[in-house]
Write a structure and sequence with these properties.
This protein is mostly helical. It has one domain. Helices cover about 70% and strands about 0% of the residues. A two-stranded antiparallel ribbon has the order 1-2. The termini are far apart.
Length: about 280
């Protein structure tokens, strides 16, 4: 069941966090959060390791009963999801650690590029599509359907949108979990190809407590991975027409972020404001 993959992702990530907590306490990872408190960032880089561990486990036990995990999707599609997560985590980590003082949306990074300055945001902007295209090309069915450029755009825009939501403790975890449940529901709540994406969401759930309690931040290394995995889930499970609709919605939301603050919108809507602060004791 998908819920078993979610649980496996959460357990593995919690173990990884327990083992690497001292590593992330190093000064190189310390950044200021929204309250100007110093916290370790980029703990979301653990998510690709979690997916790799669960996919490796599925490969080892797939021929031995009982089949606890949905091994076939994990073994067939899992390696692609591992590569996708690793690529987007690396791009996010570069931005987390090297992008101090660099900010702005698409337009600011493109202006800097026009001036001959390669920002870490521009590295993500250029590198994300390459990672997405490479991973889509590696899926077993990629050569049998059109629209690779569109599907890569869905993945990249979803990754960037998740990053735009990463402005408060636990927000990406909540948005990511709800988005996954909606996607899973659209596909009928079955045991299917979303299993590797479920592992990512499980890992996200595992990191939710330190995130909400402001003990650590996912960073771009985590939010980009979550968004890219969800975008890949859309590509895996929806029709050609639905992917065009997804592209349009993602494009509108990404462009709207250039002029509209998602945080202000959330704060202005009481139910959203309540959910946004739920489980975050340090937020008023």
């Amino acid at each position: 069941m998908i819920l078993i993959e979610v649980a496996a992702g959460a357990v593995v990530t919690l173990l990884l966090w327990a083992m690497t907590r001292q590593l992330f306490a190093h000064e190189a990872f310390r950044r200021s959060n929204y309250r100007d408190h110093q916290l370790p960032t980029s703990v979301g880089a653990l998510l690709p390791v979690t997916v790799a561990a669960v996919v490796a486990l599925a490969g080892l036990v797939r021929s031995r009963p009982p089949k606890v995990l949905s091994w076939q999707p994990l073994v067939v599609v899992g390696p692609t999801v591992v590569g996708l997560c690793l690529g987007f985590a690396l791009l996010g980590l570069i931005d987390d650690l090297g992008g101090v003082g660099q900010s702005g949306g698409f337009t600011s990074h493109l202006r800097a590029l026009r001036r001959g300055q390669l920002t870490t945001g521009a590295v993500k902007l250029l590198g994300g599509p390459l990672v997405a295209l490479a991973m889509l090309a590696s899926t077993p069915f990629a050569g049998h359907r059109p629209g690779l450029l569109r599907d890569a755009a869905v993945i990249c825009l979803a990754a960037n949108l998740a990053n735009l939501f990463d402005r408060a403790p636990g927000r990406v975890a909540k948005v990511g979990a709800v988005s996954f449940v909606v996607l899973w529901g659209i596909t009928g709540f079955g045991d299917h190809i979303l299993s590797p994406v479920a592992v990512v969401i499980g890992g996200l759930v595992g990191l939710a407590v330190p995130d909400l309690r402001e003990k650590a931040m996912l960073g771009d290394a985590g939010s980009n991975v979550v968004g890219a995995a969800l975008g890949f889930g859309v590509v895996l499970t929806t029709s050609n027409a639905a992917r065009w609709w997804a592209l349009g919605v993602l494009l509108i939301l990404n462009m709207a972020s250039e002029w509209i603050s998602f945080t202000r919108v959330i704060d202005a809507v009481p139910p959203l404001r309540f959910l946004d602060r739920l489980g975050a004791p340090a937020r008023p």
